[in-house]
User: Which sequence fits this backbone?
């Protein structure tokens, strides 16, 4: 059975949420999408996720949510992380960290999709070994899911490429998030795993990784802290479409998807965002 799975890159703030709300369901119908996976660690004001925004994303048509280094930026998401089975924090955080290490979703066709979230260690905050974490969790998720995807939220391209080869033939897809810049290296690895180093971001592209260029430039040039407001211009969805054979669990196709939108009144924050935060250069 062929499964069409759409993976959406980091959703950044209200503009990112807005285009997902406007475009996702029509596109999912047009492409006969069976499952939608989205990284939403930047969905609330550009950093973190709230229960309100989590629920909105599900209403917009997202089936499973992955997170990254801003998982706990909004502390009120912790209860959701502990109770919901469709949202995953990085599996190589401390084993005592709140949240599930994998998410699952049963498609209308029958097969169940699982997604594991991992976080990189190069140029990132300390974390446990992502390769060992993947080896540990795979046997567990294989008992629950017919097809497995992995979101590797990492800075270094070398680390992401290495993870692709580490998991080649053991999962159906390894996709990268975090850098917010789409890469052009989508391919099927030798043993049948779809791979891309980074999907890119869903949000305002007239920006520095989703933030207003002026405040980011001030921070870089002065080394002083400035609030990084969410940018609003040139809003796009960056995603990948992966076609998987549920019988062999091998990927048959991976394609980059870019969707434009004319988002009006996409202010940098709303009642669900809060005020812009002072963020470091890792955003």
Assistant:
């Amino acid at each position: 059975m062929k499964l069409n799975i759409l993976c959406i890159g980091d959703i950044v703030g209200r503009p990112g949420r807005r285009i997902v709300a406007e475009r996702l369901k029509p596109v999912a119908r047009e492409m006969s999408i069976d499952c939608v996976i989205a990284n939403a660690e930047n969905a609330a004001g550009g950093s973190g996720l709230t229960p309100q925004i989590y629920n909105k994303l599900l209403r917009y048509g997202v089936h499973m949510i992955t997170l990254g280094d801003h998982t706990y930026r909004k502390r009120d998401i912790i209860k959701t992380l502990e109770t919901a089975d469709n949202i995953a924090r990085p599996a190589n955080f401390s084993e005592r960290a709140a949240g599930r290490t994998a998410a699952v979703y049963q498609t209308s066709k029958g097969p169940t999709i699982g997604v594991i979230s991992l976080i990189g260690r190069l140029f990132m905050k300390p974390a446990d070994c992502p390769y060992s974490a993947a080896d540990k969790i795979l046997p567990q998720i294989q008992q629950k899911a017919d097809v497995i995807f992995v979101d590797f939220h990492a800075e270094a391209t070398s680390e992401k490429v290495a993870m692709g080869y580490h998991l080649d033939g053991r999962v159906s897809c390894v996709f990268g998030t975090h850098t917010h810049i789409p890469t052009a290296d989508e391919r099927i690895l030798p043993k049948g795993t779809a791979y891309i180093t980074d999907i890119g971001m869903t949000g305002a592209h007239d920006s520095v990784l989703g933030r207003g260029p002026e405040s980011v430039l001030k921070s870089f040039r002065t080394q002083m802290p400035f609030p990084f407001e969410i940018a609003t211009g040139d809003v796009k969805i960056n995603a990948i479409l992966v076609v998987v054979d549920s019988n062999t669990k091998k990927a048959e196709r991976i394609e980059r998807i870019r969707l434009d939108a004319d988002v009006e009144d996409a202010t940098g924050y709303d009642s669900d965002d809060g005020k812009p935060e002072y963020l470091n250069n890792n955003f």
